[in-house]
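To close the chapter, one final illustration. This time we ask the reader to focus less on the individual chains and more on the assembly as a whole: which components sit near each other, and how the overall shape emerges from the parts.
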Amino acid sequence: MGERTRAYRVLVGSRLRSQLAYRRSFAMDLLGSGAIGLLEFAEVYVIFANIDVLGELDFAAAALLFALANIGFSLADTVIGHVDQLPTYLRQGTLDAFLLRPLPVLAQLVTSDVSLRRLGRTALAGAILVVSLLMNDIDWTAAHVALLVIAVLSGTAIFAALFVCAAAVQFWLVEGAEFANAFTYGGAYAAQYPASIFSVPMRVLFTFVVPSAFTAYLPVLVLLDLEGPAGLPQWLGWCTPLAAVGIWAVALGGWRAGLRHYTGAGS
Amino acid sequence: MTEPIIDVHDLRREFTVRSPAGRLRRTRTVVPAVDGLTFALETGSATGYIGANGAGKSTTIKMLTGILVPTSGTVRTCELDPVRRRKVLARRIGVVFGQRTQLWWDLPLRESFRTLAAIHRLEDRAWQARRDELVDRLDLGTFLDTPVRQLSLGQRIRGEIAAALLHSPRLLILDEPTIGLDVLSKERLRVFLSEQRDLHGTTLLLTTHDMDDVQRLTERIIVVDHGRMAYDGTLPGLAARVGAERVMVLDLVDPVASLEGVPGTRVVAVESDGLRHRLAFGPEQTTAGAILEAVGTRGQVRDLTIEEPDIEDVVRRLYRAHSYHDHQQQARRS
Ligand SMILES: Nc1ncnc2c1ncn2[C@@H]1O[C@H](COP(=O)(O)OP(=O)(O)OP(=O)(O)O)[C@@H](O)[C@H]1O
Ligand SMILES: [Mg+2]
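The assembled structure is written out below.
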């Protein structure tokens, strides 16, 4: 096992060192990423300054929703967010170099970069999470604690899978960055808002196609014991790991098909 | 009888190129980049793979190494199907693309070697010894700790070649390794490559536009033209095939006005007031011995050298002959 992962540890290690080499600019990047998160949170705050309840959620609940969605997204973005730059890898021949090494291509792509600066947003979201957990009236059973942990892990996995989907799509659409962003950044944006405020088609889209509702909204329903809107019963909040497995299956299938398309076996 | 290290049969690869034609319409053109190649390379051999820009050399190499899937035909490299056994094959071959880097831009070579050793799961002691050998032979010592992006082209290529050889592959494939290098760097690289061959028996396949590379490093050449085989054999054989002439330069003891009329030769030039004569002769017409004998009856020969045909000229002639042949075939087809 150790021997197996050694290559990846060395690869990621070298990425980490090169980022931390310039401490000043790294600190600036970290702050910048946190500041962008703060601006987005301000948007939520402004909305609730005008109305008390939005889609069954009050401000405290909305803050919890925001925190969960952002922790998952920013962690995924840190670890794997660069994979949607696939066209750059193709252009520079980096993907060919991956194909000439005795490791899976996707694993090499994932470990080829880490964007530590995006942890600025994670830190902000973490702080909001702590505050919002105190603000909300949550029944702290063991099951609810477990749910919170599972939600964070599965949420990260779901966003990571969306990044892989976005990468796979770009094997076909070399100019498809915009389209690919709809999966990832679009999904992340939708995840910050209660799915109940969306029209039914959008609700279905962001639950069962792009499963971003699983990353935060559905677990929040369980934690606060709220009833879900039509079509989204509360118990779905326990199914985040299933959603993660499902979207990863789609992502890996898409990636394999995309790689086959690139090497020319598919088309 | 062992299996050839590279075995290619009726290999084809097409690319579909879509280009805008008018506002909404797009035309699809199928480009046959490699068009029915068959050849085999023996273990331990050194082969030059030659062809004009766009002839299909890089495409062939990508199919040999598992980067591209053939449209049809079969490839076997190191007894493996390159695409299906890509990861196993990667341990047995080393590949260098002169125009693209496989190193990490922000890492110094020392770090890159360490990373590659982990990727190939090499034993610490073994790879460190190999690295030291490569650093010594390729003279990498002075820039081992400089990030790759700050290296000169020549330094980078040497680093790339060391990186491709760190896991001691049986087969080394080089796509234009000497492109952009100065004469001295080219020469050093050639010395290094032939030395590796002698020491480790590494099989060599290289594409190049530099005929000196071919002459110095390889015993066999394969010429492709528009994805098709134009020639496969030795360099002298190629010269003979296109009827390239060699030139005998004769220095005489006493001046002679002209050596016109020596059978099978053509006077190219008379220099130094008749002391030096250049006679061109084709391989089929006569032999060097026969010329010497004929000249001996007309004057005393003090010294002689034979100039081999200019290879670039030979390949140009081959291309001309090949495309003429093609035109005829196409004319017949249509
Ligand atoms: N990915 C691709 N898509 C479309 N056409 C391609 C692609 N790769 C190569 N081709 C075409 O295939 C043909 C052969 O290209 P290839 O790169 O194999 O030539 P080459 O012999 O390596 O040339 P050079 O000496 O310039 O490197 C060219 O006509 C090229 O335009
Ligand atoms: Mg090429």
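Chain A touches chain B at residues 3, 6-7, 9-11, 14, 18, 92-93, 96-97, 99-104, 263-265, 267 (CB under 8 Å). Chain A has one domain: 2-261. With these observations in hand, you are ready for the problems at the end of the chapter.
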